[in-house]
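Hi Y.,

Following your request, here is the sequence exactly as I used it, all 331 residues.
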Amino acid sequence: METVNHGQYRLSTKLVELIHQNFQGFHPGYRDVHSSGRYYAGIFRATPEARKLSRAIHLQGDPVPVTVRYSNSRSGNPWGPATTASMAVRLFLPDGTVTDLVSLTAPLFFARTPDETLDFLEAVRPDPETGAPDPDRIGPFLAARPWVAHAVQLAKALPASVSLAQTAFHMLHAFRFVNAADEAQYGRYHWEPEAGVAGQTLDELQKQPPSYLFEELEARLRNAPVTFNLVLELAGPDDPTNDPNAPWPADRQRIRIGQLEIVRTTTIEEIGDAVMMHDPTRLTDGIEQTDDPVLAARRGVYEVSVAYRTGGWKGRLAALERANHPFAPAS
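Below is the corresponding structure, written out as C-alpha cells. Let me know if you'd prefer a different format.
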C-alpha cells in the first residue's frame, strides 16, 4: 500500500487553515485563496527557440489547446472586491496528459521555505478585535527577516490591474529545462502581455464592480484574441534555483519561448473537470523540478485545499485525519 508523507500533509493542513483565517474564512466549494475566478480557452504555440532549450512536447512548435483560469483577488471570499490577479494555464498535451503553469503578479514569493511561510502567516494573522495584523507581531518578524520584508514591499508597490490583458504574471519558481541533446538550463517563466503593462491604484480598481476585470477582458475577446508572450529568464551559474524569494540579477537573458492566444470564455463543465486543481509540479519530460522546498510543498497544499472545497466540512475532517495518520492511503 502506498503511503503519504504525513509530515508534509500535516504542514499543508496547517498552511491551509492559516490561509483560511488570513483570507476571510472558509467558504464551502471555493478555493482558500483566489476564490473568485473565470475560465477561458485558447491556443499556445512555442517559438523555434523553445525546442533548443527543452524537448517538452508542448515546446516543439505545434499548437496546443489551453485553458486559463484568471482570478481577480487573493481573497478566499468569492464575493469580495478585486485586489490582485492570478493566472493559471493548463496545456492539454498531444499524449493525453496535461501540464500547468501557475503564476502571480508578484515577482518573488514572500518566504524561502514552507516552515517560513507558516511563520509568516502566523505573524500576519489578523487580530480578532481590529481585523488587521498586529504591528507588535509583524514588525519584529519582518525586521528579523529582511528578505521577507523585501518581497512584501515589492508586492505592496505593485499597481492594481487596469486589465487582465495588460498585467504581467510570474511563475516565481525555477525549473530545469532539458533539450533533446540532454543539455540542461535553469529558468523562470514570465507571461508578458502583448498589449503592454498598465496599472492603476487599488482605490481606482475598487470603484468598479467586483467582476470588472473579467467583464473588461471578455469585452476585448469579443473583438480579438488576447495575447501573452511566454518568456524564459535564464539563470546564471551562481543564481539560486531553490529559493523563490531570491531575485536574480536584472541583466539575465530573457528568451521568448511561446505565445498564448486567449480566444473565448469557457466553463468547467465544458472542460470536463469539476475540480480543476492547477499544480505547478505537474510536469512533462523535458522540464524538471528543482529542489525548491516551496515548490515541492505546493501539491500537498492544493490537495488539502481541494479536500476542503469539494467535501465541505467532511473534507476538512478527512484532510485533518490524513495529516495526523502516518499510514493513511494516498488518494
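The longest helix spans residues 293-324.

Thanks again,
Q.
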